[in-house]
Structures are given as C-alpha cells and as structure tokens.
Amino acid sequence: SGSQIAVLGLGTMGAALARNIARNGFPLTVYNRHADKTHAFLEAYGAPHVSGAFSLEEVVRQLERPRRLMLMVPAGNPVDAMIDALRPLLEPGDIIIDGGNSHYTDTERRQAALAEHGILLLGTGISGGEEGALWGPSIMPGGPRAAYDAVAPIFEAIAAKAPDGTPCVTYLGEGGSGHYVKMVHNGIEYAIMQAIAEVYDLLSRVGNLPPAEQSAVFAEWNRAELASFLVEITAHILATTDPDTGRPIVEVILDKAKQKGTGKWTSQEALDVGVAVPSITEAVEARILSGLKEERVAAAAQLAGPSPEPDDAHRLIAATRDALYAAMIVAFAQGMALLDRARTEHGYTYNLHDVATIWRAGCIIRAALLEEIRTAYTETPTLANLLLAPTFREALAERQQTWRETVHIAVRNGVPVPVIAASLAYYDGYRSERLPANLIQAQRDFFGAHTFERVDKEGVFHFNWA
Ligand code: 6PG
Fold first, then answer.
1. Quick one: pLDDT band at residue 163, thresholds 50, 70, 90?
2. Which residues form the 6-phosphogluconate dehydrogenase C-terminal domain (predicted)?
C-alpha cells in the first residue's frame, strides 16, 4: 500500500515537518527539487514507512488516493510553479496542502483555479519555527471542508498539544481563512517582538542593565502573567555569549531587522478593511527604520536629543513589566479585531475562541494570556474588543499608570518606544467618549464641502464657512 501523505520541499521547515509526520507513524513520501536533499533526508531519518521520490510522477505514484501533497516551499512563485507542475499529474479529489506563508488572496486564486480540475487546496498556516514543525506546531488550515477532513488525523497527530491535551489545529473555514489567520498571527508576532525590544532598549539605555541582568528579569517575568515563548527566548538570547568575542551575542548582532512581508500584509489588509492595528503597523515601521543603519549613524551625530538621565533600575523594571503586558494585550486585541472584521469582509466563518484555542501551544505567539483570551470569547463570543473583557479591563486599569510612566521615561530620554506608545494611544483613543474628529470633519467641510453630522440633530450638513 502507498504513502498517506507526501512532503514536497525539504528545507528547514519541510524536513522538520516530515520527521514529525514520520515519527507519528504515517506512511510518508518525501520529495525535494534537488535530489541530494532527499538522499540526505533518507540517510538521516529513513524508516521502512518513509520513501523518497525523485520526480513528481514518482510522488504521485507512491500516494494512496485521494492523494495528499503537502507543499513546504517558499511563498510566492515557487508555490505556483509547484502547483503548475503537479496539476496535470493529479486527479479529481486529490488534495494539495500549502504549508507556507502564502498571501490569502494567492491561496484563494489558486483554490479557484484548481477547483476547475476538481483538486482541493488547503491553505495552511504553520507556526512554531523548526522546533515547532518537528515536535508540534500550531496548524491553521483553511479551504474545502473535505480536504480538511482527509488530513485531520495527520494534523491532529503532529500538532502541538495545549496543556489540556487539545491539539493546536482546527478547521478554520473556506477559502484563504487559514492563511489569513496565520498572517494576523505574524502581525501580532511583530508587535510583541518589537515591544520586547523596546523594553530591552529602555533597560539598556536608561536602566544601564547589561544583557545578562536583563536575562534574569525576562526569565522572572516568564514565570507569571508575561509567560510566553517570545519572553522565554528573549531571556535565553540575553544570557548568550558570542564565543568569538566573549561579548553578549545581542551586542555583536547588527541592528537591522529583516522581514519577509507577513507583518506588512497584516497592516495593508487592516488599512484596506478599516481596522486600526497601530501596534502592528508601528512594529513594521520600526523594522523599516532599523534598516536605515547608515543614515541613522550619520544622523546620530547631527540631530539633538536629551542627555540620558539614568533611572532607578527597580522602578524601571516594574514599569516596563506592566507596559509590556499592556502592549501584549493590545497587540492581541488589534489582531482579534482584524480577524473579526474579516468574518464579515471576506465571509470567513472561524470564531475567535477557536483561534485563541489553537494559538495556546506550538506557535510563536503562544502565551499564558491566550488562555484568558479564550475564556473571554467563551463567555462573550460577540465581544466588541478584547480590551473590554473583564480580565483585561482590570489588568489594564491596574497597569495604565505605570504604562504611562514607561512612555514618559522613554520620551524624556529620547528612547523610541513606538509599539508601547502606539498601544497606549490606541487604548486612550478607544476609551475616549469624545475624540477631536469633530474638528477633522469641520476642516473637511471647510475646504471641500465634505459635509458633517451633528450631535444634536439627524441629517447631513454643510456649513457656509465664508
Ligand atoms: C512562525 C513564524 C514564521 C516565520 C516568519 C517570520 O509563526 O513560525 O512567523 O512563519 O518566522 O516568516 O517572518 P519575518 O521573516 O517577516 O520576520
């Protein structure tokens, strides 16, 4: 009998995922465009139920029907090229799973094209990096229900398990919903990473705390409300020494952040559908600004800033702890608000409770607070904004003063904290009964007769400003 699934693409993620599938006992075919990688994989991880294929024809021949083909190739053209090459070899009912970070619109375009041939495409976000892929990622599948049902036993076996034993995978609905959820996951990932980096910057530049001492701070934070994968790895990173120089590794890494686009897509999408995600957008902007290293070095000698005023490290640690937790809550609130809008905007049918459920383990943004997010949506599925859930409303009320102090200290010392500050502005904007948009409306009406509504009567008005 044949293989139950094939993994095509044996890069870091593909190879780790294939090993995970093999470890769970599913008969598997592996394929890579360059045969040497297939040979290397078989040599290292070969087993009686794992077979190599050296052409797409061979992949297709080795698979049970309906065929399940998991593409682990870079998003963009490589996915189209692979689908184009496979399509003539496949039969109606066969299933392609795209496990990369494809844009949801690409997924929907490919689903429509493949549907004409009766082939099903499951757009599947996979999070957790190499370790996650190997030992249990969070899996975010979207596409035809029949395709999901056919791969569910494999996905449930290889996925991360939440503390209550639930596999971190669920059917998220039709179309590109799986890749959409993964895109927003990455937007939240960008915001939390940047907020952590801002705390590191403050503790370094204002608190004068060396990385090793900061590592202990993050490690302690990781034992309470901030417990999360990103805080945990930060503690680890800050304790790591570069063997070549003996210096903390963070101090020898160039301060230019790269990006592959998923954070930017989240912001672009949010602008398109009119959902405010300033924390995510500021994180993308911060990466862009970091890229101007040469310009920044030149500007550092020319543009004035305040002289640094070292702050009490204990006070700073206490304040930044609160600010980071607040910023994390706001990042999730914004991401969830975008996911919620996509339900009406794109007709997606996932619910936010399920999304929080499958993010609890395996993925990069896994965090203790996801359990509370899940509870919030269990209690109130129609919650207008996560900030309004009693648990977060109270958490923010307790921390809003120290959150403001953190922004104060940063501004006073000229240390940029775009995500922590934007999160606070979002919080203050969202809780403002009255915003100065009345003046914006007046300006629009003044220069363009764009009209306005009034607080005291129904209708649309234009004022004769002349
Ligand atoms: C994950 C990550 C993963 C990858 C991102 C990073 O969930 O496992 O998000 O998908 O690390 O592509 O994106 P950047 O390269 O844009 O930082």
1. very high
2. 178-466
C-beta 260 within 6 A of ligand 1: yes
> ipTM > 0.95?
yes
Helix 390-413, helix 418-430: angle, nearest 10 = 130
pLDDT average, residue stretch 101-128: 98
Taken in order of first residue, the domains within the chain and their CATH numbers are 5-175 (3.40.50.720), 182-430 (1.10.1040.10), 439-466 (1.20.5.320)
347 in the Ramachandran plot: left (φ > 0), alpha (ψ -120 to 50) or beta?
Answer: left
127 lines ligand 1 (CB under 6 A): yes
**Cα(129) to centroid(ligand 1), Å:** 7
Whether 111 is in the pocket of ligand 1, judged by its Cβ within 6 Å, is no
For residue range 64-86, list pLDDT tens digits in order.
999 999 999 999 999 999 999 99
Element containing residue 315 per DSSP (H, E): helix 313-346
Cis ω before 66 (30° cut-off from 0)? yes
- Cα Dmax for the chain: 85
Alpha-carbon gap, residue 259 to 277, rounded angstroms: 18
Q: What is the mean pLDDT of residues 169-176?
A: 98
Residue 329 has pLDDT above 80, yes or no: yes
Among the residues of 87-227, which ranges form H helices? 104-115, 129-135, 145-158, 177-205, 211-221
Could you give the CA distance from residue 296 to residue 287 in angstroms, rounded to a whole number? Answer: 13
Residue from 189, 280, 288 to probe ligand 1 pocket by mutation (most atoms less than 8 Å from CB): 189
